[in-house]
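Hey all, sorry for the wall of text incoming. These are the two entities for the joint prediction.
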Amino acid sequence: MDWLYVLMPIVGIKVFWPGLVILGLGVGIIGGFFGMGGAWMVTPGLNILGFPMAFAIGTDIAHMSGKSLISTMRHAKFGNVDYKLGSVMVLGTVCGVEAGSRIVMWLERIGQVALYVRYGYLVLLTVIAWVVFADLRKRQQKENEAKAAGKELDALSTGLEWHKRLQKLKIPPIIYFPKSGLRCSVWLPVGIAVFTGVLAGFLGIGGGLICMPALIYLVGCPTHVAVGTDLFGVMISGLYGAATYSYKGRVDLLAVFIMLIGAAVGAQIGTVATKYVKGYAIRVYFGLAVVGCGISVLMKLVGAANAGLKPTLDIAATVLILGLVTALSLFIFVNFVRGVREERKSRKADLVHA
Amino acid sequence: MHLPKHLSPGGKRALLFLLAAPLLSAAESAQMIVIVADTRKYHGLRAWWANLYNDNHLHFALMTIVLIPLAGVILGLLADRVMSHLGINLKSRKLREG
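and here's what came out:
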């Protein structure tokens, strides 16, 4: 079975290459659907496949830029990318990613990178999961109230509306984003971009995991536009991350290419699947994915603190992450197949009718 | 290494410390981690790539950021072509939250 393993030229380890393709495919589907790089799954995945943590982060962030490019190309055709908003946010994200990656290099020198990255993930995932489900509960409340009053809730109505308060901050210059239908101070998206960039660089993620909910809950983008715009930002910040991590010597390009083969197919499936689901379905499944990922990180942390439980918890965390990627990918794939089938059927019916 | 036999245990310890001093002073700079690819294992393209990594990280980084988008565009266009055969509308969608 030696042919199933490939020697990585930079890291110098033999890696199970079908694992890289499957990881790319799964994260491509999930990333295209949720609008993120999927690094929160890839970094632990690469770590599990044998990459040292700093290499896992660097290789992951490099693969993410290529995969996000593929997803952005597809989302742009649907009109889901607000280039103006994405461009405004890019500079802040890049500055933030650089600061975050410097923190990682410093932590690597003192030998604490794995521990801090895992704690960072855990805190972040908990906050995001809370926001997603609080928003869902609030929207259900609104829907019930509307029903009780004999009205129907607007199709674009949301639960939490923090963005409305934030949009009232009139610090000049005020800018209009027609694609997202937003008018706000330019400092709102820029500030959010710097914050998400620091976290992204520190955790080795493109920022999608943080930026997608930030675009929805803090800026006020419709979910589908947030997904597309976020991928555009992830592509740029991922490319910058690839440059800085490869300059620091922590990227293995062979692994990136192998993952991109799977990701190219996955990104198309995930992106097209967004056409067939409502915004809130994307939010809910995003929240579930975040909860699963948080549990796996928690298992790793408990394992690191307790040597006796470590082997069991490490295996459980791996199974959970792989199970999560598989379940979400399958769910999205089923939605994609069902949607394509229905659309083809209705198109045929239209043609027959005509 | 053999230490002089006539030295007392304390003297031997002092001598060992003096000999180890240059190594201890180097500890600070050794904290900067430099990773080198072992090019002896590779041939052809992989050997060239590993050598590029060892020789110049700037060239390595520039090649990386050129090759990744290139691979992304090529693979994206290929996947796009396959999707266009599905017979669905790939140019518009409806915006709806709930």
